[in-house]
TrEMBL record:
This is ABC-2 type transport system ATP-binding protein. PROSITE patterns: ABC_TRANSPORTER_1 (PS00211), ABC_TRANSPORTER_2 (PS50893). Keywords: Antibiotic resistance, ATP-binding, Nucleotide-binding, Transport. One of its GO terms (molecular function) is ATP binding. InterPro entries: AAA+_ATPase, ABC_transporter-like_ATP-bd, ABC_transporter-like_CS, ABC_transporter_ATP-binding, DrrA1/2-like_C, P-loop_NTPase. It is a peripheral membrane protein. Residues 2-238 form the ABC transporter domain. It is found in: Cell membrane. PANTHER family: ABC TRANSPORTER ATP-BINDING PROTEIN, DOXORUBICIN RESISTANCE ATP-BINDING PROTEIN DRRA. Gene3D superfamilies: P-loop containing nucleotide triphosphate hydrolases (3.40.50.300).
């Protein structure tokens, strides 16, 4: 569905200063996949999305999206994809249903066809009770559902969503995810979305692609990335810093101590903990606390870049 090779975008600013926003991305997304595209602010997510959706020409590289080349056949690409940007695309003058009908007419549907499609989408996105409201009167989550409906009018096989859940309250975020998952299940729609919410990407997406500084630095299932790149951790607390230092030397794995807290990276923490505790007891070390933790996607990012993805502010 998406085949990008060496996709690059350089912005030239005043005084010939350049910003290399995207630096040679290779990406293949198969039909039906749900991919979360993660990265800190300024990593190049939106620029990549804008190139893949033909809104921005690449400086170099190629991308075939939904069967067509983004440079040679942008109109054909646009006809087969849906794009829901960060800003709402709904106007303020029409009622919700009329917005959908108008969008359908823009895609060449007849008025009765556009009406039928609007009704299908009102049901799919559970917007039926809001059909006669103006978009400006909708809540954030309702409006986001309308945006998704607008992006689906022409039955795209591939849907791009830029930060679909950002700025919504937890309940509306969960609702948006329900709709995204339903869409995929019911129609096999390929979904490529950007998000700042690591837990959402972790639990919902079958594949996570992490971009940093314009380059893809990790790509795989959340579980595989966490196992391969971050690993489980055992955290031990001791009474003294000397004992913590001794814990580090007895650890079978990468270990660090901060004051009286010791963190050890292991492949399988629940299996490794009893043996480690036995070794500490034999060495006469009194352990005052012990726990195991599974890694998060943020741990993956930390391992890869030395910084936390959550250091960045989430845009409201
Ligand atoms: N039109 C532009 N002109 C100049 N620089 C730009 C332009 N658009 C983006 N950039 C720069 O390119 C880099 C990548 O920006 P991009 O918007 O793709 O990042 P992002 O990962 O989507 O960030 P965010 O999460 O904050 O939306 C940033 O350094 C940004 O300042």
């Amino acid at each position: 569905m998406i085949h990008a090779r060496g996709l690059t975008r350089v912005f030239t600013m005043k005084k010939n200063e350049t910003v290399e926003a995207v630096r040679g991305i290779d990406l293949d997304v198969a039909a039906g996949q749900l991919v979360a595209f993660l990265g800190p602010n300024g990593a190049g997510k939106s620029t990549t999305l804008r190139m893949l959706t033909t809104l921005l020409p690449p400086s170099s590289g190629t991308a075939v999206v939904a069967g067509h080349d983004v440079r040679r056949d942008p109109a054909k690409v646009r006809g087969r994809i849906g794009y829901v940007g960060q800003r709402s695309s709904a106007g303020e003058n029409f009622l919700v249903r009329d917005e959908l009908v108008t969008q359908g007419r823009c895609y060449g549907l007849t008025t009765p066809e556009a009406g039928r499609r609007a009704d299908e989408l009102l049901d799919l996105l559970e917007l039926r009770p809001l059909a006669r409201r103006k978009p400006g009167t909708l809540s954030g989550g309702q409006r986001r559902r309308l945006d998704i409906a607008l992006g689906l009018v022409h039955r795209p096989s591939l849907l791009f969503l830029d930060e679909p859940s950002t700025g919504l309250d937890p309940r509306s975020r969960a609702e948006i995810w329900t709709h995204i998952l339903r869409l995929r299940e019911a129609y096999g729609t390929t979904i490529f979305l950007t998000t700042h919410y690591l837990e959402e990407a972790d639990s919902m997406a079958e594949r996570v692609v992490i971009i940093n500084g314009g380059r893809i630095i990790a790509d795989g299932t959340a579980d595989r990335l966490k196992n391969d790149l971050a690993g489980d951790h055992i955290t031990i607390t001791t009474r003294t810093e000397q004992e913590a230092a001794a814990c580090v030397s007895l650890a079978d794995g990468d270990a660090t101590a901060e004051a009286t807290t010791v963190r050890v990276r292991v492949a399988n923490a629940p299996a490794a903990l009893p043996e480690y505790l036995r070794a500490l007891e034999e060495a006469g070390i009194k352990v005052t606390g012990a726990e195991t933790t599974r890694p998060t996607l943020d741990d993956v990012f930390l391992t890869l870049t030395g910084r936390s993805l959550t250091d960045d502010d989430i845009p409201a």
